[in-house]
Amino acid sequence: MAAIPPGIRLLVSFNRDQWYRALTFMLTFLLYTSFHLSRKPISIVKSELHKNCSSVSELATMASSSSGGGGQQPSLPSLHTDVDCSWKPFDKRNYKQLLGAMDYSFLCAYAVGMYLSGIIGERLPIRLYLTFGMLASGLFTCLFGLGYVYNIHSLGFYVFVQVANGLVQTTGWPSVVTCISNWFGKGRRGLIMGLWNSHTSVGNILGSLIAGYWVSSNWGMSFIVPGIIIAAMGVVCFLFLIEHPNDLKSIHAQNSSPTTNVPTKCWNGVNGQTEMYLQYKDKTQSYDTELLLPRDSVCVPVQPVVVVKREAEPSAISFMGALRIPGVIEFSLCLLFAKLVSYTFLFWLPLYITKAAHLDAKKAGDLSTLFDVGGIVGGILAGVISDKLGKRATTCAVMLLLSAPTLYGFSMISEFGLGPTIGMLLVCGGLVNGPYSLITTAVSADLGTHKSLKGNARALSTVTAIIDGTGSVGAALGPLLAGLLSAGGWDRVFYMLMAADFFALLLLLRLVTKELSSSKSRPISTVELKEH
Predict the structure, then answer these.
(1) C-alpha–C-alpha distance, residues 341 and 498, integer Å
(2) Which of 177, 316, 338, 388 is the most buried (most CB within 10 A)?
(3) Which domains does the chain have, with CATH numbers?
(4) Which InterPro entries is this protein grouped with (predicted)?
(5) 395-416 as b/e, with b when 16 or more CB fall inside 10 Å?
(6) Are 469 and 336 in contact (CB under 8 A)?
(7) Calpha distance 396→403 (Å, rounded)
(8) Which residues contact 177 (CB under 8 A, 6 or more apart)?
C-alpha cells in the first residue's frame, strides 16, 4: 500500500468546524477586499482628470512668456482649458476643491449611513443585507465609469453617484465584522483580526493596480472593472456566506434524519392510545441512549410532552445602550482622527506623489501601494502585540505617538528621491494603519462582546457601526481639508495630519492609564488562548 501524501494528511487533519472557519475567514476577507478595491480608483483617476488641464496651462504660460510682449500673442491664453482639457468640470483652477468635495460627498454619506447600517443589519439576515449592498455598490461604481463612456461632464452626476455609493457601502463593515466575530472568539483575536484586516490594504493595492492599468487610456474602465468585481462577489456572498455556526445545525439535523434502511420499532400504545412509531439508527446511538430505547414489543405509556423555550431571544441593543459600554466613546473619537489620517493618504497620496516626485498617474498609483503594504504589516503587528500584552489602548497610543514625527519626516524626505520615499511610505503605512486596523477589528469585537452585555451577541453590529461611523466622520473631513489646505502648499496638509494623530493620542490617555494601572492587564493566559 502506498504512503498517503503529506498534503492529504494535512487536509484530513482538520475537522469540519475548522474547515467552515477557514471558509468564513477567506470569504469575508475577499468580500471586503472587493469593497476597498472599488473605492480606490477615484484617487488614481484624480491626476488624470486634471492632467491635461495643467499641461495646457503650462504650455500657454510658456508660450506667453516667450512672446515677450508682442501684440499678436495674447490670443494664446485663449487656448483655455475649457476647449483642450480632457475632462470637465475638473478643468478649473479650483480643481482641488472640486475633487475634495467629491471625496467628501462619498465619505459624508458613508459616515451618516454607517450609524443606521449597524442598527438595520442587526434586524436583517446578514447574508442578504450584504449581498444587496455589494450588488448596489457595483452598480454605482460602474455608473461613475460610464460617465467617461457617455461623455458626462456634470458635477452633480458624479456627486450623486458618490453619495449613493457611500450609502450602500455601509452595509459591508458591520456585516463582515459581525460574521467573523461569530466564528472566532476572544482567543488570539488581535492576531486573527490583524491578519484578516489586511483585506483593506490588499483591496487598496488591487484597486490601484487595476485602475492604473486603464487610467491613461480609458479611465472609465478604472471604475467599471472594480464595479463588476464587487457585484460578482455579492453573488458569491449570497451563495456561500454562513453567518453563524448555529446556522449549520439545521443542515446537520437534516443529514442525520432517517432516510433509507432505517429500522422501525413499533410501540404498542396503552389506555386506548393509537400505535406510536419510533425511528432510529441502530449504530449511531450512544450506550446511554440504548438503555432508554424499548426492546422489541415493550408497551410504553405515552405522555404528552411540552417543549418550553429556556430563555427569550436577546433583543437588539439600542444606540444609547451601545454608547454606555465602557470604552466605546473613547475609541470612537480616537478612530475619528486616526481614520482622518488614513483616508487622507488613501484619496490624496497618488496626487501628492505626482506633484512631489513628478511621476505620471500610473507610476504614482503603483508607488502609493507601498503605503498599503506597510499597512498590512502594521495591522498584524498591532494585533500580535496587543494580544501578547493584553493592552489594546496602549498599543494604539504608542503607534500614534511614533506616527506623528514619521509623517513630518515623510514630508521632508519625499523630495530627496525615490529610495527614501519608498522607505518612508512603508513605515508611515505601518504606523498610520496599525491603530486604525486594531480599533476597527479587535477593539470593536471586544467591545461588542463586553461582559456588561451579558452575552447579548446582537450588540456587535451596532457597536461596530458606531465606532466605524464616528471614524468615517474623520474620513470625510480629512480629504476635504486636504483639498482646501493643499492649495496653500502640501506642508499644511502634513501639519493637519500630525495634529490629528496628537488628538487621537490624547483621547486614549484615560484608557492607557487604566490599562497600565490595572492589575488585570496581563498577557493572555493559556486558557484564554484556547478559547475560540
Answers:
(1) 8
(2) 338
(3) 14-49+86-245+315-516 (1.20.1250.20)
(4) MFS, MFS_dom, MFS_trans_sf, SLC37A1_2, Sugar_P_transporter
(5) bbbbbbeebbebbebbbebbee
(6) no
(7) 11
(8) 440, 441, 444, 445, 448, 460, 461, 464
pLDDT at res. 414: 65
Cis peptide before 523 (omega within 30 of 0): no
Cα angle value 9/13/16 (rounded, 5°): 135
* pLDDT tens-digit map of 93-148: 777 778 878 888 898 899 889 888 877 877 889 999 999 999 999 999 999 999 99
Low-confidence residues in the chain, pLDDT < 70: 1, 51-86, 185-188, 250-318, 414-417, 448-459, 519-532
d(CA 129, CA 117): 10
How far apart (Å, rounded) are the C-alpha atoms in residues 203 and 212? 14
Taking the model in full, what pTM does it have? 0.71
Q: What does each C-alpha distance from 202 to 107, 422, 479 come to in angstroms?
A: 20, 18, 21
- Tell me the β-bridge partners of 265: 278
Q: Can you tell me the distance from the alpha carbon of 107 to that of 468, in angstroms, rounded to the nearest whole number?
A: 12
pLDDT tens digits, 329-385: 999 999 999 999 998 988 888 888 887 777 777 788 888 888 989 989 999 999 899
What DSSP string runs through 247-303? GGHHHHHHHTS--SS--EEEE--STTPPPEEEE--GGG--HHHHHHSPPSS------
CA end-to-end distance (rounded Å), the chain: 38
Centre a 10 Å sphere on the Cβ of residue 221 and count the other Cβ atoms it contains: 18
The grid cell for 194 is 490583524
